Amino acid sequence: MSSALLPKPQMRRLLARRMKFHLFGAFFVSVGCAALYKFGIAEPRKRAYAEFYKNYDPMKDFEAMRAAGVFESAPPK
């Protein structure tokens, strides 16, 4: 009697149905993570580098390192 009350389990196409659900879920999670990384880390980093190099003078930096004795091939003046 109790077996008549329970519904039959879904056996056909069970893997395909679960795979479709998990593939869509994995796709949306990965797109979300990529968007968070791009807008949360990559873009601010690009802006910070652009701001730094906007006023950066490599010759001034080289002369400061030269005066500090960092380079062996370019002795301090």
UniProtKB/TrEMBL annotation:
GO BP term, pick one: mitochondrial electron transport, cytochrome c to oxygen
Family listed: Belongs to the cytochrome c oxidase subunit 6c family.
Pathway(s) annotated for this protein in UniProt: Energy metabolism; oxidative phosphorylation
InterPro entries for the chain: Cytochrome_c_oxidase_VIc (IPR051389), Cytochrome_c_oxidase_VIc/VIIs (IPR034884), Cytochrome_c_oxidase_VIc_sf (IPR037169)
Keyword Metal-binding tagged: no
Location of this chain's protein in the cell: Mitochondrion inner membrane
Any single Gene Ontology cellular-component annotation: mitochondrial inner membrane
Subunit annotation: Component of the cytochrome c oxidase (complex IV, CIV), a multisubunit enzyme composed of 14 subunits. The complex is composed of a catalytic core of 3 subunits MT-CO1, MT-CO2 and MT-CO3, encoded in the mitochondrial DNA, and 11 supernumerary subunits COX4I, COX5A, COX5B, COX6A, COX6B, COX6C, COX7A, COX7B, COX7C, COX8 and NDUFA4, which are encoded in the nuclear genome.
Protein name: Cytochrome c oxidase subunit 6C
PANTHER family: CYTOCHROME C OXIDASE SUBUNIT 6C
Record function comment: Component of the cytochrome c oxidase, the last enzyme in the mitochondrial electron transport chain which drives oxidative phosphorylation. The respiratory chain contains 3 multisubunit complexes succinate dehydrogenase (complex II, CII), ubiquinol-cytochrome c oxidoreductase (cytochrome b-c1 complex, complex III, CIII) and cytochrome c oxidase (complex IV, CIV), that cooperate to transfer electrons derived from NADH and succinate to molecular oxygen, creating an electrochemical gradient over the inner membrane that drives transmembrane transport and the ATP synthase.
Protein species of origin: Calidris pygmaea
Keyword terms: Membrane, Mitochondrion, Mitochondrion inner membrane, Transmembrane, Transmembrane helix
Entry keyword annotation includes Membrane: yes
Chief localization: mitochondrion
Topology of the protein relative to the lipid bilayer: Single-pass membrane protein
Database matches in SUPFAM superfamilies: Mitochondrial cytochrome c oxidase subunit VIc
